Every structure is written in structure tokens, then in C-alpha cells.
């Protein structure tokens, strides 16, 4: 398959393999993509569109990107006969099948953009795989300045997908065709070295190069050409680091008018739950809720842009201006999770896990302790309107009209993930105590729930794990319905599929999980709450 010669400008929205991508730049605004309206980057100059995606979690952002393009394009100014070639690429079993679509005019292309849903966009390969389908590096026609851009089967021995250096010769070939690349920048620690090398190579390619071509009569000529610039753009939510900015070429930094040190000050209430609420196992039932919440006025300073992002939350650096202590503020990524009710449910989960860890430590006297950092809610509001130390749920709802954040002390040390919510266990930095704690919580709660996704730092001086952001699989998904990390009975079964009882499990004499036992039965709720033998506090 080949394309006839056109103005050789491609729009490529590419992402590195998702295993290396966790941090991106930001969602493009109207201004970010406004250059597509005119000049060499006009949509009328784009004849090939590549829809690139590497993960389920990224698809929604690519959908947003498509909608941005749709809003920017003004149909009346576009020619009706402008053909766009679109390639949807999806890797399966080490193959790269290509779905090829031809839109006869821009109006048809725009119409398709309107109809695309984020979950319809196929999963696509890394930037390496993208280059594989753009060029056929063994074709001699690339040494002709009039060569077509070939989209043929790529020979695997021409490029190493694990080494970015092998991309540069291919990019140079594309550059000689006058191709302009728009691509993303990664900042994940495992790929930062590749990204730096990659961009250094791109800077070199932007310099003047010599192109040798041979005409039909065998006459060889050499002329000097300058390839078009490479413009990095990312289509992920706001998450920018200093390292990201250092990678962006200076001539395009104007696309990212961001001050990473910018902060904002907020006043409001710190909301917490009375610890005695968790002394009764009724807190694990789906209908339970604290009658009153403790509140304390405070003033916080928060960085405007997050420094990290997990599966469901953003994390921001901050300072409690009253205590002068460093804190971390977190909010839900998904707007659908941003209600006070869901924040309170999540706060209750964290507090319940804190109490379980406290009880575990009383019987676990020979191994490291498990400690979860205390979590509170910050509700932005006029704190002067509140004149009492406790509020009911209804009263909180009345004062909560602005932003809500989780607030935690800042963790110091190497952050380690010991297990996740889908059976994965860190074998390189294995923690017998962490695994035993997850196992123990299942039987401690009469097989109601299990605490997983254990992550945090190790305090060697105090011989304890300091953990944050746990997940809970509950037998009733309605109990913690706010959490997308709750996999219910399936999540419980997945944990025990990979769990092997260790010395801590055996010393604590924790029960054995029976696969399939009660897995398919409906949960039973009764007026009388089941109680369990508790260790005295």
C-alpha cells in the first residue's frame, strides 16, 4: 500500500508503551492546537492521521483530543475534496494489524470524530511500532526527494523495539520527506533516559541535512534541505514535572505556559472520624455511617499542579499554614467521584483500615508493624461560619460548596508497592508481613473483606511499614461502591490465587482460604451485626 505524493505533513498522536508511561504533560487547550488552523500545520495539509493508544486508561484522553481537533476545525474554511487517510493500529500476538480508512472529505472525517467513543478507539502500539508502519527502511525510494511515503509490512530485523537509538535513522528518513512529527513526552523514571536521548536526536535532525537523490536518468544530485520541526504535545490530564519541561525544545515552550511552583491558598475545615466508631464491626456493614464528624478550621497552601497520579487520584504537594508541616493533598481524577459522600466513604475506608492495622500489630509482636498514615478530609468553605467541633452529615453537605481533598502527612523514603488489587505481588521486594496482613484482614472480618494494594515506605528504625492508599475488596460491592478498585469476591479470590502462606501467616495461625467457598453465594445482611473476638485496645 502506498500513498501518492502530497504535502508531506502528518499528524501523529503517539504514546510510548504504557508500561513506561505514567506521567504526561497536560490536556491540550484550544490554544494548544490552534496552529492546526493555518500555516504548514493546517488540517488541510494533513493527509495521514494515526490514532495511537496503548492502554484502556488512556483511551478517554485520546477521545478528548479528537474532540479538541473537531472543535478547532472550521468546516466552511476547508476544501470539500480534501482526502484524509486514517490508520487504526492494534498490536495482537506480536503482530500489528492495520485498519485503513479513507475519508473522502473533511466533513466526513469530522462526522466520524463526533461518532467515535473513547472505548471504540483501538489499543495501539508504542511509538516504535508507529514508525514501523510509517516507513519501509529497506526501500531505496527514500533516497529520492520525490519519494512516496510507504506504508508496507515492516521487517522486524530493521529495528530494535527496545532501543530508541534505532529510531533515529528512520526518523531521519521521514524528515527527508518533509514530515512534521507531533508526539508525546514521557517522564517516567524508567524511560527518562530514552526520552532525553530521543529528543537530543530530534534536535540534531532539525539541523540542516544533505539529501542525495537520483533521477530517472541515473543522475545523482545532492542538495541541502531543512526538515520540519518536531513539536511535542501530550493528551493527558494536567500532570507536568520539571523534568518534563527540561525535555521540551525551547522553541516550543510557549505552548506550555505553566509555572510548576504556582500555589493557591485555601481555608476550610479538616474533617475526621471519631476512632471509637471503628470499635464496633458494624462499620463494615454497607448501611453504616458515623453520626457525627469532627471538624477543625485550618488554612492550607496547595501546589496548583499535581506531582503524581495513581489509578484514581491526583496528588499535590502542600503545607498546613497553621502547623507549618508539609502535607500531601489528593483528589479524585474522575469528576463522577467528586461528591462529598464518596469522599466520606473513602475516608471511612482508610480509617477502618487504620484500626485493622492497629489490631494486627497487637498480635504481631515478632515482625514489622503495619501502620497507615492518618487521612483526613479538607473541605474548602468559610470556616468562620462554623462554631462547633462536630457536624452531622447533613450539616457537612450544607457547608461543602467548593473543593474537597484528602489530606495526609508527607511520606519520606523510597516508595514501594508490595501488592496490588489484582493478585500481583512484589517478588523483588517481598514483604511477608504485608502479605500476611492482607490474609489476616479477610479472616478478621469473618470473610467480609480483604485489604490489598499495600504501598508506602519502610521505617527501619521503628521496624514498621508506613502505608497509604489501600484498596478493599468487599463481599458487597455496594459497601464501597465509590471505589473502582473494589473487585468484590473476584478480587478476594484473585488475592489468594497468588498468595502463599509465609512465616508470619503460620505464626499468627491465620485460617486457610478455600477456593470457591461462598464465592457465588449472595451476601446476607441482618438486623443483628455479627461480632468477632477483639483484642483489647
TrEMBL record:
Keywords: ATP-binding, Elongation factor, Kinase, Nucleotide-binding, Protein biosynthesis, Serine/threonine-protein kinase, Transferase. SUPFAM superfamilies: Protein kinase-like (PK-like). The keyword Transport does not apply. Residues 276-513 form the Alpha-type protein kinase domain. The keyword Nucleotidyltransferase does not apply. One of its GO terms (molecular function) is protein serine/threonine kinase activity. InterPro entries: a-kinase_dom (IPR004166), Alpha-type_PK (IPR051852), Kinase-like_dom_sf (IPR011009). Gene3D superfamilies: MHCK/EF2 kinase (3.20.200.10), Phosphorylase Kinase, domain 1 (3.30.200.20). Belongs to the protein kinase superfamily. Alpha-type protein kinase family. ALPK subfamily. This is Elongation factor-2 kinase, putative. It comes from Entamoeba nuttalli (strain P19) (Amoeba).
Amino acid at each position: 500500500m502506498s500513498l501518492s505524493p502530497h504535502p508531506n505533513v502528518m499528524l501523529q498522536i503517539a504514546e510510548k508503551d504504557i508500561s513506561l508511561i505514567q506521567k504526561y504533560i497536560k490536556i491540550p487547550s484550544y490554544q494548544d492546537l490552534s496552529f492546526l488552523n493555518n500555516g504548514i500545520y493546517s488540517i488541510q495539509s494533513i493527509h495521514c492521521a494515526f490514532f495511537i493508544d496503548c492502554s484502556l486508561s488512556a483511551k478517554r484522553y485520546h477521545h478528548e483530543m479528537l474532540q479538541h481537533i473537531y472543535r478547532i476545525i472550521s468546516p466552511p474554511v476547508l476544501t470539500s475534496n480534501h482526502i484524509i487517510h486514517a490508520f487504526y493500529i492494534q498490536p495482537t500476538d506480536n503482530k500489528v494489524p492495520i485498519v485503513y480508512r479513507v475519508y473522502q472529505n473533511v466533513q466526513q472525517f469530522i462526522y466520524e470524530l463526533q461518532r467515535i467513543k473513547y472505548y471504540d478507539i483501538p489499543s495501539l502500539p508504542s511509538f516504535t511500532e508507529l514508525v514501523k508502519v510509517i516507513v519501509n527502511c529497506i526501500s531505496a525510494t527514500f533516497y529520492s526527494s520525490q519519494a512516496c511515503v510507504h506504508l508496507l509490512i515492516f521487517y522486524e530485523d530493521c529495528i530494535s523495539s527496545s532501543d530508541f537509538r534505532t529510531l533515529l535513522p528512520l526518523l531521519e528518513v521521514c524528515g527527508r520527506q518533509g514530515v512534521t512529527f507531533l508526539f508525546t513526552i514521557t517522564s517516567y523514571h524508567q524511560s527518562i533516559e530514552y526520552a532525553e536521548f530521543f529528543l537530543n536526536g530530534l534536535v540534531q535532525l532539525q539541523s540542516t541535512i544533505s539529501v542525495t537523490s537520483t533521477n530517472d536518468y541515473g543522475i545523482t544530485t545532492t542538495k541541502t534541505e531543512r526538515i520540519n520541526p518536531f513539536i511535542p504535545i501530550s493528551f493527558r490530564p494536567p500532570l507536568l514535572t520539571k523534568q518534563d519541561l527540561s525535555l521540551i525544545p525551547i522553541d516550543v515552550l510557549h505552548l506550555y505556559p505553566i509555572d510548576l511552583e504556582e500555589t493557591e491558598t485555601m481555608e476550610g475545615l479538616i474533617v475526621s472520624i471519631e476512632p471509637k466508631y471503628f470499635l464496633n464491626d458494624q462499620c463494615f456493614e454497607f448501611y453504616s455511617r458515623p453520626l457525627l464528624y469532627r471538624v477543625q478550621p485550618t488554612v492550607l497552601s496547595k501546589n496548583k499542579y499535581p506531582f503524581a497520579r495513581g489509578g484514581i487520584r491526583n496528588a499535590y504537594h502542600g503545607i498546613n499554614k497553621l502547623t507549618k508541616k508539609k502535607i500531601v493533598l489528593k483528589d479524585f481524577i474522575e469528576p463522577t467521584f467528586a461528591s462529598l459522600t464518596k469522599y466520606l466513604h473513602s475516608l471511612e475506608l482508610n480509617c477502618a483500615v487504620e484500626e485493622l492495622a492497629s489490631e494486627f500489630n497487637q498480635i504481631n509482636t515478632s515482625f514489622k508493624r503495619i501502620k497507615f498514615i492518618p487521612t483526613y478530609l479538607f473541605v474548602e468553605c468559610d470556616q468562620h461560619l462554623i462554631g462547633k467541633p462536630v457536624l452531622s452529615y447533613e450539616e457537612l453537605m450544607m457547608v461543602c460548596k467548593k473543593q474537597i481533598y484528602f489530606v495526609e502527612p508527607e511520606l519520606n523514603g523510597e516508595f514501594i508497592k508490595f501488592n496490588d488489587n489484582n493478585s500481583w505481588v512484589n517478588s523483588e521486594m517481598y514483604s511477608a508481613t504485608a502479605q500476611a496482613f492482607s490474609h489476616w484482614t479477610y479472616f478478621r472480618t469473618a470473610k467480609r473483606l480483604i485489604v490489598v494494594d499495600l504501598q508506602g515506605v519502610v521505617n527501619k528504625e521503628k521496624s514498621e511499614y508506613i502505608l497509604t492508599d489501600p484498596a478493599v475488596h468487599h463481599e458487597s460491592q455496594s459497601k464501597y461502591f465509590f471505589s473502582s478498585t473494589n473487585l468484590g469476591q473476584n478480587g478476594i479470590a484473585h488475592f489468594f490465587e497468588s498468595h502463599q502462606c509465609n512465616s508470619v501467616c503460620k505464626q499468627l495461625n491465620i485460617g486457610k482460604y478455600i477456593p470457591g467457598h461462598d464465592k457465588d453465594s449472595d451476601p446476607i445482611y441482618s438486623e443483628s451485626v455479627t461480632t468477632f473476638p477483639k483484642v483489647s485496645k
